[in-house]
Specification:
Elements lengths: L1 E6 L6 E7 L2 E5 L1 E5 L10 H6 L5 E4 H6 L3 H6 L3 H4 L6 E4 L2 H10 L4 E4 L2 E5 L6 E4 L1 H11 L3 E3 L11 H26 L9 E6 L5 H14 L3 E4 L12 H10 L5 E5 L4 H10 L3 E4 L1 H7 L2 E5 L11 E5 L19 H5 L2 H9 L3 H27 L4
Parallel strand pairs: 4-5, 4-14, 5-6, 6-10, 10-11, 11-12, 12-13, 13-14
Antiparallel strand pairs: 1-2, 2-3, 7-8, 8-9, 15-16
Amino acid sequence: MFKIIHKSKISNARLGLIKTPHGNLETPIFMSDATRGVIKHLSAGDLNNLNLECLVANTLHLFLRPGAKLIKRAKGLHNFMDWQKPILTDSGGYQVFSLIRKNGINGAINDKGAIFKSPLDGAKLKMTPELSIKTQFALGADMIVCFDDCPPNGYNDAELSASVERTIKWAKRCRREYDKLSQPLKNNKKPLLFAVIQGGDNLKLREHCSKELIKIGFDGFGFGARHVDEAGNFLAGALKYTAGQIPENKLRFGLGIGLPEDIIRSVQFGWDMFDCVIPTREGRHGKLFFKKKPLSLKANNFYETINITNAKFSKDFSPINGLSELTELRRYSKAYLNYLFKIGEPLALRLASLNNLEFYLKMINEVKALIKKDKI
């Protein structure tokens, strides 16, 4: 399912190959978030033109609407959204707990699962480890993630410890459900199963969680909860230490890691997979990413961002991105894009999203090239 192709001689970065039911993927990889089964304002054709290799969809959102039954009738999410490349579905755990942690009246968490109010109509719903796995199988994803207890990073050690123990218990239940549902499938049709390592910035808890999850057995392991502290500081120590706890022959998934410099630092720690809404969400708010100079070990200044809605761009007739491989970004001007944002034209959101995704995908390809040359 996963093999390492090359390991850097100057860091823990590595090149790898993932085999999935819908094709092979080279790592490191950045996967764009198609939370509700779509990347806003972009078609499958747009994504293919960008050479995007994998999408991440959200189990909870698709469970709420349109529902797993309807997607199963469409013969899976790939057919439903006309995407025949790999799809990873996260468990929905982060979204459930985010909903509850923000406001206790929205639900409660216990060892059986999470009970919560639907954000759509207020209906009382329940999500369990078993239901999360069943839903992901119904969606037909190539890679799926265990339902976990995702705590805020501000939790104290006792609260983090309780979250870790629940995550381990739920991972066992997810594994049992996965084994039951995958038993009739051929090996090359089985989705890869990921567990999520919790523990906040407490390294002992991260180590304990890792060891217990490894005993259960999974194809890959994710870094659970946010990768920054409450002040927004990158948790470099926890990310580096946790990567070191994961067996070398297993995939390492940095869930939600999305700033370019954070991705590159995480690659150097040994993480393989990344997903985030940053390129598309920021683009829809007018923030555009551009490469400034070649990547290097000092990767914090290789790119720049602009806010295309600023008045100074209203008379800038240079291309949105003269180096782009996409015709629209080479032919439309910054002044035109500035105007489109001003009038609320959806084309603005599409162009900005295309620009940012192209930046991220080119960045990850450059990272791969540097690993191959032992320069990162």
